[in-house]
Predict the structure.
Amino acid sequence: MRGKLEKFFGYMERSFRPEAELCVQRGTISNLDDLNHYFAAWLEKMYHQRVHSTLKKRPVVVMESHGPLRLVDPVVLEDAFQWTYSAKVDKTACIRVQGNTYEVEPILVSQTISLRYDPYNLAHIQVWWDGKQYADAVPLKLRRHTDKRVTQADAKTEEPTVKPGISFLETISTRREQERKERLGRTSFVRTTKEGERT
């Protein structure tokens, strides 16, 4: 299963990402909704229509044969992407994380605990020790709001150069919208008189 996922992400990296970066540079993608819109168009019109090398079928055919998609609970998804960090609790039941000071439960004094958190929000940190979750760490001094590794990674990201030509994502997105309109058909408005007769 892992190999299949890596193959998908590799293909997405080669096919979707360069086009998405081009759209970002042109201003066509300026927020998450735009990105999701173009990703859905790429997935539906490009990825799902190619015959899969292992399945020997188009992914859309395989998906339709398994019924509706089951969505992951957002809380489970959020937990899956949390970062972890180990810290030793001092005598005052405090820990330090990236220049911030937090208070934890006194029972954890002198223990090395595991912390789980969203790297973009250091105000909320889960506390775990010996396989059990304790009350969240309480911020006492909050100097940093995001993990410094995130800030450094963002700073190192180079802006891609704008390439001339037509954006493939814009083309398939337009085609997708046209096909959706054709499937829905045209809306017909009929005028009626007071007696209910059509005109």
